[in-house]
Design a protein that fits this description.
The complex is a heterodimer. Chain A starts with a strand and ends with a helix. Chain A contains ten helices and twelve strands. Chain A is α/β, with parallel strands linked by helices. In chain A, helix 6 runs parallel beside helix 7. Chain A has a six-stranded mixed β-sheet with strand order 6-9-10-3-11-12, with helices on both faces. Chain A has a four-stranded antiparallel β-sheet with strand order 2-1-4-5. In chain B, the strands form two sheets. In chain B, strands 4-7-9-12-15-17-19 form a seven-stranded parallel β-sheet. Chain B has a six-stranded parallel beta barrel with strand order 8-10-13-16-14-11. Chain B is α/β, with parallel strands linked by helices. In chain B, helix 11 links the parallel strand 2 (200-204) and strand 3. The chains are: A alpha/beta, B alpha/beta. At the A-B interface, helix 2, strand 7, helix 3 and strand 8 of A face helix 12 and helix 13 of B.
């Protein structure tokens, strides 16, 4: 059974159709990249999968681990193991990152019948995960994403991913706003999390990120549908030729 | 309780008789409904008060008769019939719940969440036959309380009921009572001056630092807090005390109007930290049956380098209407006001502070966090006044309002008056809506909606919550979440 099966997915935002019959299957251990021009529906796909309000599914189905994903609330999907690394991580003033992380991790643990971490145990747990991502104790004490640099925000996203240990991680333009050094740290963090069970969906506009997180499959999204699929070499072709042909084709 | 029913019946009968020229019977444990000079005398006599105290009460009562109920506040409420209330030992209405089974399950759910033991739940919910003094269940035991008391006495610290203080320490009471909030101050404070029956008195002698938060004892001591509480705290030169008022569990109460007066006095180099967590019954979703919390709280920083900090977390009551204030008389004195006010459903609040700068180099800091949800409406109203002689005075004010949903309101009304050109006054205000993006971010990490709201709002209030003493801060944090349950979605 595939980890994620998207069949003929249609979705609208403010009654405007954005996804128009999207099909995609991700198996455990696979890394898929979705590339596409601005406005092709990349971010909409990530929000539809994670259950954000305002993104209305008008047709099709999505199975996650064999369960109907679209029936679940956003928080339920997260607890079931769907993780979204945000393109623009949100600031939560006054809430320390470590408190935020612990609240999230404990919500997921309790969902799976595990006992919640107390504060002391959690510090140990998170420090281990944080070390590889160059996230300092000081950063953990600062309010969530508040006053963080672009690189810090993305590292914090990946730390959250590592802490929550999801079955499926969606990375929404994680490369945006990162210089090359920051990009490498983030990519290393993501690669460290590749496993036989976990599925990864990397959404990006540029091929650059895929030099560091090398995908098994690359798909081109245009006008709300997958218009071409291939191996990792497809990303390089796109870098050369651009998206123009797909826009015309789909039009 | 049979005794209560009996008492009630007696009161009814007496009340009937009164119309025909009843003279208050001093042997009775209660006064009939209504307010007149005889009732004031009755209360004073019951409390075995000296003549001067009675005179003061009567002066207040006579003045009260000439006053009009204020109408300038934002929350409006139906007229209160002052003749329809009991002013002394108000008998219970006889419809007390017999056991926790009869208590509103929603109330019990909240107790559960706050982790309150069963026995204490009974006391809070007013269950018939629950211990009159919630000693064993509430906190510790009598012996502990006695140990505390001995420890305090050793230091010369006086901590007793206001009635006891009137009898045992008349010189202190005479000197300070009404010196911060005069009997003629305002409608409700004047009423309180005439009929107050309960409250606490604290005196910290020169140079003493009170060795404990005066809270544990308070909860044991004042289980039966009255409708008209009067609190007086005096910190003599170089002394310090931290005082905690209130309870994080919603308290049922038969009295709808609560008109308390709190007076604080700090002399040279003294400091009082006064923390309140107020969670009176807010009424049902339409605000029916909730408490009116109309309180006058004021501190006089009389001495040089003295300091008063008010911290309040207000989540209860149908209407909260109060402005804990500081009169900064002493040079270099400091006033602080940290406030979290949460209104949900039909709750209303008009609260804030007044900082009156009189002495030189006086400083004040106001941090107010208002959260409105449901169809609640909230007003921050604050006065910063710099008087002519207050050279070098400084004030910093920050008022932040957070709205949850689209049916609630938040208003900020700052009054700033400066008569001294060397003063610096800063005012910052923000109003924001709880972000859909913040909620989604939290939910995407696995938190349910209520957990997410609690987390975000606690972050919003953090600056204030961290000024609370540790034991209160944790409970207050939980309370913030609970108060806002059901406010989203």
């Amino acid at each position: 059974m595939a980890l994620l099966e998207i069949k003929n997915l249609h979705a609208t935002v403010d009654d405007k159709p954005i996804l128009n019959g999207l099909d995609l299957t991700i198996g455990g251990g696979e890394v898929h990249a979705i590339m596409g021009p601005n406005g092709s529906g990349k971010s909409t796909l990530s929000y539809v999968l994670s259950g954000r309000d305002g993104y209305e599914v008008t047709g099709g189905e999505v199975l996650f681990d064999g369960k109907n994903l679209l029936e679940m609330e956003a928080d339920e999907r997260a607890r079931e193991g769907v993780f979204l690394a945000f393109q623009y991580p949100v600031e939560i003033p006054g809430v320390t990152s470590i408190t935020f992380l612990r609240t999230a991790v404990n919500a997921v643990r309790q969902h799976h019948g595990e006992s919640p971490f107390d504060a002391m145990d959690f510090v140990k747990y998170i420090r281990e995960k944080a070390a590889g991502l160059n996230v300092s104790d000081d950063m953990l004490k600062r309010a969530v994403n508040t006053g963080f640099s672009g690189g810090e925000k993305k590292r914090m996203e990946i730390l959250q991913m590592a802490a929550l240990d999801p079955k499926l991680a969606i990375l929404d333009e994680t490369d945006s706003g990162l210089d090359i050094d920051a990009l490498k740290v983030v990519a290393e963090g993501v690669n460290a999390m590749r496993s036989d069970e976990r599925g990864l969906l990397v959404i990006t506009h540029y091929q650059r990120l895929l030099d560091y997180i090398v995908p098994d499959h690359v798909h081109v999204l245009a006008k709300g549908r997958i218009v071409k699929s291939g191996g990792k070499e497809l990303a390089h072709e796109l870098e050369e030729s651009g998206y123009a042909e797909f826009l015309e084709d789909a039009a | 309780m049979a005794a209560d029913a009996e008492a009630l019946e007696q009161v009814r009968t007496i009340g009937e008789q009164y119309k025909y020229g009843f003279v208050t019977d001093i042997e009775a444990d209660f006064a009939p409904k209504g307010l007149n000079e005889d009732i004031v005398r009755f209360i004073s006599k019951k409390k075995e008060e000296p003549e001067w105290m009675l005179e003061w009460r009567l002066k207040a009562y006579r003045h009260w008769l000439t006053m009009e109920e204020p109408k300038w506040q934002k929350p409006q409420y139906p007229e209160i019939d002052f003749q329809d209330s009991y002013y002394y030992a108000a008998p219970k209405t006889g419809d007390k719940p017999k056991s926790l089974d009869e208590v509103d399950p929603q109330l019990l759910e909240v107790y559960e969440k706050l982790g309150i033991p069963l026995r204490e739940q009974e006391v809070l919910a007013g269950v018939e036959g629950a211990p009159a003094v919630a000693v064993d269940a509430v906190f510790d035991s009598v012996s502990v309380a006695t140990t505390y008391k001995a420890k305090l006495e050793e230091q010369g610290i006086i901590f007793c009921s206001i009635s006891e203080a009137v009898r045992e320490h008349p010189e202190l009471v005479k000197q300070y009572l009404g010196s911060v909030v005069p009997y003629s101050d305002n409608y409700y404070a004047t009423l309180n001056s005439a009929v107050f029956t309960d409250g606490s008195f604290v005196y910290i002698p020169k140079g003493k630092r009170c060795p404990m938060e005066l809270s544990t004892y308070f909860r044991i001591n004042a289980e039966n807090t009255g409708q008209f509480e009067r609190t007086l705290i005096i910190a003599d030169e170089g002394s310090y005390v931290s005082y905690l008022e209130g309870c994080t569990a919603p308290q049922r109460d038969e009295n709808q109007l609560h008109a308390a007066v709190v007076e604080l006095v700090t002399l040279d180099d003294a400091e009082i930290k006064y923390s309140t967590v107020q969670n009176w019954y807010p009424g049902d979703e339409d605000g029916k049956g909730g408490i009116y919390n109309f309180v006058t709280k004021r501190a006089a920083c009389r001495g040089k380098n003295s300091k008063v900090s008010w911290t309040q977390v207000e989540t209860g009551s149908a209407i909260t209407w109060k402005y804990p204030s500081c009169i900064l008389q002493g040079d270099n004195s400091v006033g602080e006001f940290y406030s979290v006010a949460i209104t949900n459903n039909a709750q209303l609040a008009d609260t804030g502070t007044k900082m009156i700068h009189i002495g030189k180099n006086t400083r004040s800091r106001i941090i107010s966090k208002g959260i409105s949800a449901g169809k609640a409406d909230q007003t921050y109203r604050g006065l910063v006044r710099i008087q002519r002689g207050a050279n070098g005075a400084r004030n910093y004010t920050q008022c932040d309002s957070l709205l949850i949903g689209d049916k609630c309101g938040a208003h900020t009304i700052p009054y700033i008056e400066s008569q001294n050109p060397s003063a610096q006054v800063e005012h910052e205000a923000t109003t924001s809506r709880i972000g859909e993006d913040q909620l989604f971010y939290c939910r995407q990490r696995g938190m349910d909606e209520e957990e997410a709201v609690a987390l975000i709002v606690n972050g919003f209030c953090k600056e204030v919550l961290q000024t609370l003493p540790m034991e209160f801060a944790v409970e207050a944090q939980k309370l913030v979440g609970i108060s806002l349950e059901g406010s989203v979605g």
